[in-house]
Amino acid sequence: MNANTDNKDPIATPNHTPQLQAFRDIVESRRSVRRFTDTPIPDDVLADCLRLAMLAPNSSNLQPWEFYVIDDADNRKRAVKNCMNQNAAKTSARLIAIVARTDVWHDHAKQVLREYPDQPVPKKVKDYYNKVVTMDFLRGPANVVSAAKWGATQVVRRVKGPIKSPYYTFEDTKNWATNNTALAAENLMLALRAHGFDSCAMGGFDEPAMKRLLGLGDDQHIIMMIGAGERADNGVYNTQFRFDQKQFVHYV
Predict the structure, then answer these.
(1) How many CA atoms lie within 13 A of 148 on its CB side?
(2) Where is the Nitroreductase domain (predicted)?
(3) Which helix (H) or strand (E) holds 68?
């Protein structure tokens, strides 16, 4: 992978990779840091990290995520307790709940059309968000629409071949929202590292208690808590290693 240094265009191409080494440095230096210093994360830095998080790829640009930055002293104390008093939560400069939403797809589809950058909005875009997205997610009373979608999908597969499976159940929609939100969480952690800060993604927390603390409803799901701050000297507990990629990568 050779970088063509004569090319001043910052956009990477197969023959011009000006950001490759910087990206390697970010990814390879990112660690799950469990102890942080007292150095604060400035508001403008956090805002930029969250902006970069929301540039993550996501299905149909429906953006089913929320980020709860827990700064209030009392709320933070309770949140740390809900995180089992982990050092990554106790010592973090900022503590953030990463939330996936299963109830915003319809409103966000309408918002996409309102804020679409190319005007007038092309008909195929209108049809997609008004019809395809609705059919994809709609379940109907007692899941009656889901049952009809399932039957129609089976017929199409037999007659025409492969077809994308629509979302039949609440769990389907939850998986969709969770997958998309996890992509944004990864962007957030890499953005923090690029700004010189670190993070720890925590799955060990009391979700019902944390949802009560944040006032979340049944359609809001905390997929992880992220503690963030400056890495302390004793913040990384173990030497980094991964299994050989040959164990996981398959060419078929």
Answers:
(1) 11
(2) 28-229
(3) strand 65-69
Q: Coil, strand, or helix at residue 224?
A: strand
Distance of alpha carbon 194 from alpha carbon 188, whole angstroms: 10
Contact between residue 221 and residue 97 where contact means Cβ atoms under 8 Å apart? no
| Chain centre to alpha carbon of residue 192 | 14
- Tokens standing for 194? 């690029």
Query: In whole angstroms, what is the distance from residue 225 CA to residue 102 CA?
Result: 18
pTM over 0.85: yes
pLDDT in tens, 143-172: 777 777 777 778 778 888 887 777 778 899
- The CATH 3.40.109.10 domain(s) of the chain lie at 32-103+184-234
Rounded CA gap, 236 and 233, in Å? Answer: 8
Gap between the Cα atoms of 77 and 89, Å rounded: 10
CATH of region 32-103+184-234: 3.40.109.10
Q: Helix 73-82 crosses helix 207-214 at what angle (to 10 degrees)?
A: 170
Strands 65-69 and 94-101 turn out to be antiparallel
CA distance 181 to 59: 10
Give the residue from 23, 56, 64, 63 showing the smallest Cα distance to 183: 56
Q: Give me the amino acid identity at 114.
A: R
3-state secondary structure of 128: helix
Low-confidence ranges of the chain (pLDDT < 70): 1-7
